[in-house]
Amino acid sequence: MSDSVKFLLDEEHLPTHWYNINADLPEPMAPVLHPGTKEPVTPDDLAPIFPRAVIEQEMSTEREVEIPQPVRDVYRQWRPAPMFRARRLEQALQTPARIYYKYEGVSPAGSHKPNTAIAQAFYNKAEGVKRITTETGAGQWGSSLALAGTFFGLEIVVFMVRVSFDGKPYRRAYMETLGAQCIASPSDQTESGRAILAGHPDSTGSLGIAISEAVEMAVQRDDTRYALGSVLNHVLLHQTVTGLESLEQLAMADDYPDLVIGCTGGGSNFAGLAFPFLREKWQRGLDTEFIAVEPSACPTLTKGAFAYDYGDTAHLTPLVKMYTLGSGFVPPGFHAGGLRYHGMAPQISHLAKQGHLAPRSYNQLECFAAGIQFAKAEGILPAPEANHAVKATIHEAGKCRESGESKAILFNLCGHGHFDMQAYIDYNAGKLEDLVYDDAEVAMALAGLPSGC
């Protein structure tokens, strides 16, 4: 086994294809339904929202999808991304576990999100789109699409969830510096936003609300399309470059993971790391375990219902079968803003329902404590979202210390926390508290699940 700390691949090892897990699912997923007819959607139904190439990827069952050369050319700036052996963390934890982390914070935007932002911007540009609207929670996705917009000459409009718009000014400044328009959501610029503000003028917002605003604006102009940074199949597809590279890097380490861990909000960074390893497990009969970690304040996988639901609050989007807290649920304003989505990616929901992964939730304070423990050992301060994966990794490493087992643990350090320093300032000052989701509000939101599906 290698005694190296870092495992680097040169550009020749940049993946040429994304991996589509739909080709290998042991059981097929439920179809996506039209919100009006409740019949399976067609490509024409999605045409006002997405470019044709993206729609084809969303519905594809091909195992491999070629990465266009212009996308690979941009990827080359930071990909293949490094993998590290967390040897100092292992020593600090006094664990026999072998801890590896794939570090996606080396992208220009500081997270894994450009993996799909670059691809979606390319496909929109190729089909003559001039403007893209989107939503963002913590700002990682909005920052990444703003970056992609500069590379491909596209106008970008970002509806940023109000609690993050107010609490993360540096993310907002990054987007605006790159030329994107950043709007606090709910806003007065859309019918759906105005409807929310009429009833809740002090609303902290939600990803569901921001999605409604972005979709509403997108369908008003022929030169505009909508893009999103998580949840749907094509987004998770684009993220698999992370896991494909990790397979090669672990081979360099002469090791293989017993545990694969990632945080989950909409599901993109967990899927990007885990899906290629799930393929290996199914094809080779391996015993690898998969842990999807979410915040206790928005426990979609651990406490949600597996049902058809809308992806947005105004019910403008198609119906997908997923774990959901209800499209009307507005989570409390905790700092991991990218993990505040009411639903979970249909592919991850399907895999969780079938028992192929284990969901887990943690509170905000214990995740920040884990992130700081990691930073003191490894020198990288994680984004608040990534702290959830760090917490689960430290927990599993502790179990190895107690049992004496030397398991290999791989987790996705999906972004750095340099734009999130206010959260750490508040944590260090004792201003943060654990926020609990409202049972009554969830019950009310779930009562509004669509019928007849």
TrEMBL record:
Organism annotation: Thiohalocapsa halophila
Residues that bear N6-(pyridoxal phosphate)lysine: K113
Statement: the UniProt record of this protein carries the keyword Lyase: yes
PANTHER family (alphabetical): TRYPTOPHAN SYNTHASE, TRYPTOPHAN SYNTHASE-RELATED
EC number: 4.2.1.20
Gene: trpB
Cofactor(s) the protein needs: pyridoxal 5'-phosphate
Name of the featured protein: Tryptophan synthase beta chain
Function: The beta subunit is responsible for the synthesis of L-tryptophan from indole and L-serine.
Highest classification ranks of the organism: Bacteria, Pseudomonadati, Pseudomonadota, Gammaproteobacteria, Chromatiales
SUPFAM superfamilies: Tryptophan synthase beta subunit-like PLP-dependent enzymes
